[in-house]
Amino acid sequence: MTEIKDTGAELKLSRRLTALAQRVPQGARFADIGTDHALLPVYLALEGRIGFAVAGDINAGPVNAAKRQVAEAGLEEVVSVRLGDGMAVLRPGEVDTVAIAGMGGSLMARILEQAGESLQGVETLVLSPHVAEDAVRRWLTANRFALDDEALLEEDGVIYTLMRAKRVSSQEEAQSIEARLYDERLLAPSLERISMTLLYEMGPLLLRSPGEDFFRKWEQEISKRERVILQLNHAVAPEAAEKAREWEEDVREIKEVLACLRAEKRSSN
């Protein structure tokens, strides 16, 4: 928990929001989409990290709470709180850095896909999907944003994924970066290949430097998938057996990848 004291008010930031704040470039023109209480833009403004911010939310309650937070900090001239759906709160070219957190990856990818001209001028995306991280990584790949940072952070028993991606100037450069990033022979020769599906699910940078949170997250994921397999094996629908086989193959590959990574960590110690 990070605490700073502003003009008479005390602002507390969770470890996850602090980690997201650390990934915002110095001097950014910043937008926080789904801002809730505007904690992130207020914190960044008080720290002198940003000169301007938009705090947007689709619901009136959080917008009102955000306005109170901004007013208490004396930042009405710096942080603009707006009610609206996704990135529709932004004007083209208004910001260069956007943060989206606290929602599933499929919704996050949909918000980015529907952004249209609101993405003009945006060079950095700071993202924290709590599920379906692969949907976000696939959107980034398809839209010339390249991951330059991935991390996992556990807080209150939940393991969060943090990502930062930078816009790539040309399609040719984007393709070159993605070919290196999503390399199916990443773990060779220990593992001949890792499927593209798992590269997107597990994270190409996280796979390159897995920590204990990574192994814990994927052991939990194996347990979840094995429970689904058990349910499918008891189902009477004819397609259930085929689906169970697909999930069993996924679990087999995940276990193989984790075993390979653990062996590499042991050999490097």
TrEMBL record:
GO terms for molecular function: tRNA (adenine(22)-N1)-methyltransferase activity. Transmembrane segments: none annotated. The lineage of its organism: Bacteria, Bacillati, Bacillota, Bacilli, Bacillales. Signal peptide: none annotated. The keyword DNA-binding does not apply. This is tRNA (Adenine22-N1)-methyltransferase. It comes from Cohnella phaseoli. It comes from the Bacteria. One of its GO terms (biological process) is methylation. Keywords: Methyltransferase, Transferase.
